[in-house]
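User: I'm preparing a small set of examples for a lab meeting where we compare how different chains pack in three dimensions. I only have the primary sequence for this one, and I'd like the structure in token form so I can line it up with the others. Please keep the answer compact; I'll paste it straight into my notes.
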Amino acid sequence: MPWLKHISPRPGLALWWAFVLMALLAPARGRADEAAEELAYKVKAGYLFNFARFVEWPARGTNAAATFRIGIVADSEAYAVMSAVLDGKQVQGKTVETRNLKPGDDLQTCDIVFVARSRARYLEDMLKKIGDAPVLTVGESEHFAEQGGCINFVQQGEHIRFEVNLEAAERAQLKISSKIAAMATIVHTVKPKEGP
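Assistant: Understood. Below is the structure token output for the 196-residue chain.
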């Protein structure tokens, strides 16, 4: 930047200009981060759609209405991105309908429930509420599948991979296609350690 050579190197001035430059560059970094996160949620929404195609629910698992319900427990920005990808698509002869849910809502009314990282602190309670209901639980936080979720997204470099807990899926009476299992890392439920 040619204008920088006109700045006098008085004590403290260099530090002041450093803060100015940081302030100017921060919005650009912030926009790049937001764009990357938006893209990640679009990719994850695409995965959810494919999970719906390659997972088999018991007769009572997919509701009798003409909708396939995907609950998204996330902030409004993540929900907006994912719902734009999913709403109105056709899967298993039904129309996909997303719902923006809170951790305390009735999660058993959905066929799939996605729990964003921002809501991970409510995970234990949500999994208890879902219980053994035929709901495919999908998350993106560390140890989600090991805590009893069915599928967990994991970031590996620039790629989004996923883990599958077949035991959790079996408890939920769900049959996960071998095509999904072959692409995933298989993990098992880890029981919490009991106190002394």
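A couple of notes for your slides: The first strand starts at residue 55 and ends at 56. The two ends are 63 Å apart (CA to CA).

User: Perfect, thanks.
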